[in-house]
Amino acid sequence: MSTTSEPGTAPGPAPERAAPPAAGVRAAHRLFLGRELGIALALLLLLGVTTAVNPRFLSGQGRTDLMLGATILVVLAVGQAIVIITRNVDLSVGSVLGLSAFATGKLFLAMPDAPIVLALLAGVGVGVLCGVVNGALIALARVPALVVTLGTLYVFRGVDYSWAAGQQINAADMPSGFKGMGTADVFGFPALALFAVVVLVAAGFYLRSYRSGRELYAIGSDPAAARLSGIPVGRRVFGALVVSGALAGLAGVLYAARFGTVDAASGTGIELNVVAAVVVGGVAIFGGSGSVYGAALGAVLLSTIGSALPVLHVSPFWQQAVVGALILAAIGMDRALATRVAQRLRGGKARGA
After folding, report:
1. The pTM is what?
2. Is 295 within 8 Å of 278 (Cβ atoms)?
3. Where is this chain compositionally biased, Low complexity type (predicted)?
4. First to last CA, the chain
5. CA neighbours within 13 Å on the CB side: how many for 156?
6. Residue 100: inside a domain
7. d(CA 219, CA 234)
8. 135: domain range?
């Protein structure tokens, strides 16, 4: 239908088409928020059942053990979630943790009076260097992340074995102040767990509040479209892998502080638990959705399962079966949620039109 105007005046602007309502986007947010709430409820249910069987499970020392057991996995899961959101994966985190933990021990052997801050910086530096290697191969050379990080998993572990040459660093070789960090508490809260809380809050704030953080979700949703819209995909993916490496390096320092004894095998196999925690926590394995808070909940849930099964008189051999079942259920739920969100979005667009 055409519009008319008075003679000598410019024609008025054509009426704008109503923008599609944001109901679909809000529905997507509610669905994924509900996923994280479901994980939290499952965790509370597990804690309740286990405590009913053994009331000492959540005693003072029991709570401390649970928090310490989840700390390292949470730190690694936060870094892994940032990478998986971009539709990539970092399988080398276990080897980076081991290399960083051994480097921390060697630092204290060479400098017994070294400050703890220097150990933290050294461990994070080792992780950053490993992350740069992964990022350069994936983001710059455009080699698939699964292939690169599977290769660097063995490369970094081989470097660790070659450096260690069979040597084991014991707790007696660590300064008392550093070992005390693994047992100290702040107002009843383990000091090591505070590192995980700080990392989690900082990563969540960055992903939610900064444009570069939100661009990671755009990259994971559709890398080609993100590149066409002007997002520096290579730079963002490179940064995500460097952050994952840095957090794996930090986890290595925390590992050395908690256990005291480190060798070349430290952290072997933990990368699978990390990926499992992230997927169970609601981060879509194909990228573009999820949060670091959900990944942290998944890490706490898996860690609690490992502690609760012996109390419930369940054979520890079933732990891997339970984790595998959770992964399959999480992937199936991701698929169902993605289908439901797509239907809501299509419905919203149709109503807007």
Report:
1. 0.86
2. yes
3. 7-21
4. 17
5. 35
6. yes
7. 10
8. 70-271+286-293
